């Protein structure tokens, strides 16, 4: 029998210890199932336990709803800079990268798409909460069938186009349904905080219910005449819906370039074939989501129409929050007294 030298034996012994040590090393100190016998393995996460979950909302009202539910448990932000219209904002590379690393992105959803830029950037579908798609019927709250911008192009002759509206939060009841879905998604992101989110949701929905009750006392008539509600564009559909008004949409004008002079407003009123008939039926109120100039207000007054400006919160409020802005919107309508003739 061949005898190996002691040096060779020692080499084989060291090799055995090194190889087996490398195999056993990852097992040292590990506790299967997180240390609890019979428990399932913990899900992997790249989030530092000491760091709050990052939530992005595509508009200020959605940020407000989400923050009320998340409380201090999560970092909630809307990336749109102060003073910019969220519906027209386009994110730059840095903002997109931050959203890609967020734990959840709260949006409206298909059909009620508010942030159209969502279709132009690459974001994981699993991270997007389409808050206006759960428990809501498309035909009930998105479609606008009575847009009365009558015009002609091509062989069709005079006609108008249906459209969709994204300002869902102008109806407190719909905002409440969106809040339900947001709470569900936050609990999916952080299941351990589910009870906190649920409690915060109930407090939020209490406020939204009280706001919805305030809508119910808005005037349906002015004196002995019915109130006829027109709107400069369909964006305020949900505000009218919450008030129980049949809102006659005239056309779609957007600031600051669409209405530039008084004669433009005269054309605007002339476009609506129903306007003269509606005026004979009662007091006419024109809702707008932006202020009219003094000249335009004078033209409206001569037409027998009162303009009331409703803030849709496309731009973050300079003061107050969602509830305060909605209450200011409602304060313009005074059931116990006359609606002001001019509201700038």
Question: What report would you give on this structure?
Answer:
The chain is of the alpha/beta class. It is built from eleven helices and 13 strands. The chain has helices spanning 6-24, 60-70, 93-100, 138-141, 172-189, 194-216, 237-243, 262-271, 275-281, 294-302, 322-331, and strands spanning 53-57, 74-77, 104-107, 128-130, 143-144, 151-152, 158-159, 163-164, 221-222, 225-231, 247-249, 283-288, 305-309. The strands form four sheets. Strands 9, 10, 11, 12 and 13 form a five-stranded mixed beta sheet that branches. α2 (60-70) crosses α5 (172-189) and α8 (262-271) packs across α10. It is globular, with a radius of gyration of 29 Å.
Describe the secondary-structure layout.
Blueprint: H1 6-24, E1 53-57, H2 60-70, E2 74-77, H3 93-100, E3 104-107, E4 128-130, H4 138-141, E5 143-144, E6 151-152, E7 158-159, E8 163-164, H5 172-189, H6 194-216, E9 221-222, E10 225-231, H7 237-243, E11 247-249, H8 262-271, H9 275-281, E12 283-288, H10 294-302, E13 305-309, H11 322-331
Parallel strand pairs: 1-2, 1-3, 3-4, 10-11, 10-12, 12-13
Antiparallel strand pairs: 5-8, 6-7, 9-10
Helix pairs in contact: 2-5, 2-6, 5-6, 6-11, 8-10
């Amino acid at each position: 029998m061949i005898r190996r030298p002691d040096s060779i034996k020692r080499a084989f012994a060291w090799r055995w210890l090194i190889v087996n040590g490398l195999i056993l090393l990852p097992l040292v100190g590990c506790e299967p199932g997180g240390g609890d016998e019979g428990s399932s393995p913990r899900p992997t996460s790249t989030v530092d336990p000491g760091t709050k979950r990052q939530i992005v909302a595509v508009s200020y009202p959605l940020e407000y709803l989400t923050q009320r539910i998340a409380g201090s448990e999560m970092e909630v932000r809307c990336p749109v800079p102060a003073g910019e219209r969220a519906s027209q904002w386009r994110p730059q590379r840095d903002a997109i990268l931050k959203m890609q690393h967020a734990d959840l992105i709260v949006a409206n959803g298909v059909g009620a798409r508010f942030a159209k830029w969502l279709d132009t950037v690459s974001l994981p579908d699993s991270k997007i909460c389409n808050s206006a798609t759960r428990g809501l019927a498309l035909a009930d709250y998105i479609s606008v069938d009575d847009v009365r911008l009558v015009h002609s192009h091509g062989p069709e002759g005079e006609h108008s186009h249906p459209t969709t509206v994204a300002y869902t939060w102008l109806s407190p009841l719909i905002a409440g349904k969106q809040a339900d879905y947001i709470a569900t998604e936050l609990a999916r992101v952080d299941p351990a905080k589910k009870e906190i989110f649920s409690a915060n949701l109930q407090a939020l929905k209490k406020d939204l219910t009280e706001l919805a009750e305030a809508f119910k006392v808005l005037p349906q008539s002015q004196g002995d005449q019915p109130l006829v509600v027109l709107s400069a564009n369909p964006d305020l559909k949900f505000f009218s819906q919450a008030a129980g008004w049949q809102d006659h949409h005239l056309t779609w004008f957007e600031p600051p370039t669409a209405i530039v002079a008084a004669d433009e407003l005269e054309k605007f009123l002339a476009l609506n074939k129903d306007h003269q008939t509606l005026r004979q039926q009662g007091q006419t109120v024109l809702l707008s989501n932006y202020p009219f100039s003094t000249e335009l207000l004078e033209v409206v007054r001569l037409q027998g129409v009162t303009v009331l400006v409703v803030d849709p919160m496309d731009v973050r409020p300079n003061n107050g929050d969602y509830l305060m802005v909605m209450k200011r919107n409602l304060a313009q309508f005074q059931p116990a007294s006359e609606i002001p003739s001019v509201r700038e």
